[in-house]
Fold these 3 entries.
Entry 1:
Amino acid sequence: MPDSALHEANDATAADNAQLAAFRRSIDNIDAALIHILAERFRITQAVGEYKAINALPPADPARETEQIARLRALAEDAQLDPEFSEKFLRFIIDEVIRHHERARGR
């Protein structure tokens, strides 16, 4: 391979690597934001769990969960995100919140 072709190939590889690094930085930033948003969500749901425990309310609210899942599936579709994935993700979060609420209730 002539030196000029090798130099061009190295330049292309460097550009590809720079693009990949930029994509990864963006993903890392989004991941950090997700963690902070989830932490805030769980702080709020912890307060809800304490409220429910004090007021003798059940840890789970199936009607609310159904409404939330339907609402977030529609949001996912609008955002061109797989609604099945969004439901699984939300179900995981809801199950964890219910577990926290049950613990707050003293079960």
Entry 2:
Amino acid sequence: MKIISKETSKRVCSHMNNDHIDSVHKYLIHYGKISRFENAYMEEINNRYIKINYDGHSAIINFKNEISEEEIHSTLVSMIKEIK
């Protein structure tokens, strides 16, 4: 079983929310099928999914496969490329 630590989740979420919020919004719209929201941010990432908080609600976006900490970057990049 692949594990993503709470510390890594916190670091990745902070980075995504501060530097790539447009990608977080695209994940929510495309994969989460949520088209209308005022505020959204990445709340958690683990080996199975991304959790995005939007307007006080949560959307879970599952990965195709379980991922490891080493696979986070390539997974998030490939997900954004699939949208375009």
Entry 3:
Amino acid sequence: MKVVGIVGGIFGIIASLLAMLLTLIESTYTVGNFGLLGIAAGVLGIIAALLLDKKPIIGGVILIAATAIGIYAVLVYFLLPGALMVIAAIVRMSQRDQSY
């Protein structure tokens, strides 16, 4: 699930950059300014996905928080990355620790 979280974070960064680009075309800067917050949420999602193997509860909570921040920042553009990050968080947090 770490890979799904990382992909969600990368898609979040791309979606935020896309939102910022589209605001330059439309010349409405409200979403463009929040695009930086969306990029920060994507980076936070990547860091949290890397934490999922060692500390699944903390990594999952941070992934869900990054999703909430990203959806607040760039709204519709962050839905697909947010869904990927939430799925990775819920699946990893619900698994029992399996040591082999």
